[in-house]
Every structure is written in C-alpha cells, then in structure tokens.
Amino acid sequence: MKSILFLSTYPFSKPRHGGQIRLHQLVKKFERNGWTTRSIAVYEQESYLGDELGAYDVPFPVDSKYRMYKGKYVPLINDLLTGQFAISEDDGLDKIIANLPPQIDIIHVEQCWLWPLVGKIKSLPKYKNVIVVFGSQNIEYILKDEILEQYHVNDRDDVIQDIKALELKAVLEADIVAAVTECDVEFMREWHRREIKLAANGIEPWESNILTDKWEKRLPKAPWLLYIASAHPPNFTSFNKIIGESLACIPPDSKLVIAGSVCEHIYKEVLKSKWASINMSRLEFLYVLDDADLAEVKNRAYAYFLPIEHGGGSNLKTAEALYSGKPIIGTISSFRGFEKYSDSPRVNVIRTPEEFFEVTRKVLSNPQPVLEQQERVNLENLTWDKTLDKLYSDVQNYYEASVNA
C-alpha cells in the first residue's frame, strides 16, 4: 500500500482557515486515489483543542523554551519557531518520531516551517529513500516581513533572513515543489529551481439551493455584500484604507455582512475610524458559521466583497466568490492567482476608496449580470478536484518512476 505523510503547523480535523482547507483537500485527493495517509501537525498548544486535533498531532507548548527566538521574544513567528521545536532532541522530536507510520513513501511538507524535520526523518534508515514534496502557499519571508511591519515589529531583519534561508532550502532540496500562483512559480524559479508545479487554490462546491426561514429573517431584504475570511492579518489590516474609512456608500437598508474569524478584527479596525458609528450601522457580523449555515449565507448574498491589499499566495474566498456566479467587488491583490477571471462582467476591480464608493453603489442598485453557460463551465476549473489534479499526477508518476528505477 502506498503511504504518504503530511506535515504541517496546524491540525485540520475541522478545517476553517485557508491553509487547513487546502491541506484537507490534498489529503482527500490522495485517499480517493488509494493512498494511505497520515498527518502530523506540530501546532500551537493554545490555539487548538479537542475535536480540532488529529490522532497524531503534537502540541508546541506555550511554556516551551523554543518559543524564544535567539533568546528573545518576537511576536507572530511561532510558525518559524515550530520548526526548531520539532527537531529538538530534548523535546519535540521523540514525540513526532513515535507518531510516524511504519512505512512512508512520500512526505508532503505544507509550507516551509517544518522543513528541518524532513532531514531528521530521512536520517532514520527505514525512511532514507522517501520522496519529499514541498507545498508552498506564499513567498513566506515577504509575507512575514509585511505582517511584522504592520505590527511595528522593527527588529526583524534576522527573522526575515532566517525564513528566506529556510524557504530557499525547501525549494532547492525537495523532489517536487508546488506553488499556488503563477507569480509564485516565477518567483521561485529565480532561486534556480526551474521545475515548479502549479497547484492552485480551489473550492469545494456547496449546495446552492439551501434556503431557510432562519436566514431569510436575519439577513437584509435589500441587496447586500458578503465578506468571508479568517483571522489572517492581511484579511483585515487594510480594511479602513480600502473603504476610505467609510461605508456610507452602502444604503441604510443594506449591509456588509461579514462571516468567519475575521469578524472581531474588522470590528476593532472599524472602531478606529472617525465614521465608526455610520460604519457599525452598515455591518452585520455573523462570526464563525457551520458549513450548512455558511452555504445558505453564500446563496443569499447579492454580491461579494474582497478587501485584500497585500499578502501572498492566493485567496480561497476569491475562488468561492467567482464560483458563486455573483457580482464581486475586490482589490487587485484579491485576484492574485485568479487574474484570468478578472475580465468577467461580474468582476469589479477597485484601486481607490473613490472607486469602492462608486462601484458599491452601482453593484447594489443594478441587476445581477446573467451568468453565461460557458462561464459556468469554465468555473468548474476552480474546484479542488481540478486544481490539485496535476500535482497529484506528478507525485504519482514520480513515485512510480522511483519504484521502477
């Protein structure tokens, strides 16, 4: 039986944020094709509990000495620090090794953070010939630099250089490297790795005719906007800048409805604006919803809003918005990885707060564009089954070639 091990810094038994969803879909792809899978997440102990955890996941304790970076505390870099904890012979490594399956043909490392662990696993005689796949989600050192700058972490040069070195090592040493956007593919090719696979982000189709009294009563009767996102900083740190600090362009009987763990962060951002009172009257926070409720909210939305100014990789919620067939208002960055869809009449790319005002009024007052049959057919290419197909085939072929060598 073919066996693949997935390594990550977050569990995904209950996938919510983009990284969890992507990894969940990767595992499903291999399982559907006859592979035995095992997943080990080395996760922040304080961030996940109970049924969020997998059977073989290993906690990175809050009080671990490896929470320090070169003897000092640096915020927002636990992902980097997890790699050092994972290879520590006095702490994490033994726990991880104890959870390894007896046979591993392939190791898939999602993001670069646990790359040091790969070497430790391959140093064990029975795993020395495993094939290693590096799955990149962003150019991590650039994204981390942007995040730390926004949080005013000034003494970060060493951190960024260490992340860049780790990322470069993963790109050059892996047997197969996959990226989520063509832009990231081209970027990593500059690191003298010519063959980079594209494995774009996608969507899981949802039941499109779910409609209940519960949400009919709660949501606006007039056309309204929907924004769904996780608590990943690029999903909220530029919100006020993008809207020009005001949501007054949304009619009083309408709303910008927000769902997901981004809600509490948008709430705090909105309170910073001098127009906080008006803005709060135009917002409806739904917080984290279960899949059935979220599916109905998506079905009832009149249009989608994607206020992403920076970040790396691509946004899963852009794929969802496109697949919905509804009008979309979004920044240039929000369509990163989905540029070929941006010429659709449903897509409205905004560059300034003035454009946000103008486009929002237009979208909420005009009829929804008709979704042509050919566009609907093209949107099927956004499903995970299609976006991960080439990566799966390449891994399968590499494995078969190694067996037959």
Number of domains: 2
Helix content: 25-40%
Helix count, per DSSP? 17
Radius of gyration: 22 Å
In CATH, what is the homologous superfamily of the largest domain?
A: Glycogen Phosphorylase B
CATH fold group of the largest domain: Rossmann fold
The overall average pLDDT, rounded, is 96
Question: Which structural class best describes the helix and strand composition?
Answer: alpha/beta
Level-2 CATH architecture of the largest domain: 3-Layer(aba) Sandwich
Residues in β-strands, percent: 5-15%
Number of strands: 13
Q: Just give the CATH class of the largest domain.
A: Alpha Beta
Distance between the termini: 18 Å
What coarse outline follows from CA principal-axis ratios?
globular
The main pleated sheet reads as: 7 strands, parallel
> Largest sheet, order of strands side by side?
3-2-1-4-5-6-7
**H/E element sequence:** EHEEHHEHEHHEHEHEHEHHEHEHEEHHHH
Low-confidence stretches: none
Describe this structure in words.
- The chain folds into 2 domains: 3-202 and 383-404, Rossmann fold (3-Layer(aba) Sandwich), CATH 3.40.50.2000; 213-381, Rossmann fold, CATH 3.40.50.2000.
- 40% of the residues lie in helices and 15% in strands.
- It is built from 17 helices and 13 strands.
- Helix 5 (140-150) packs antiparallel against helix 6.
- The longest helix has 17 residues, at 157-173.
- The two termini are 18 Å apart.
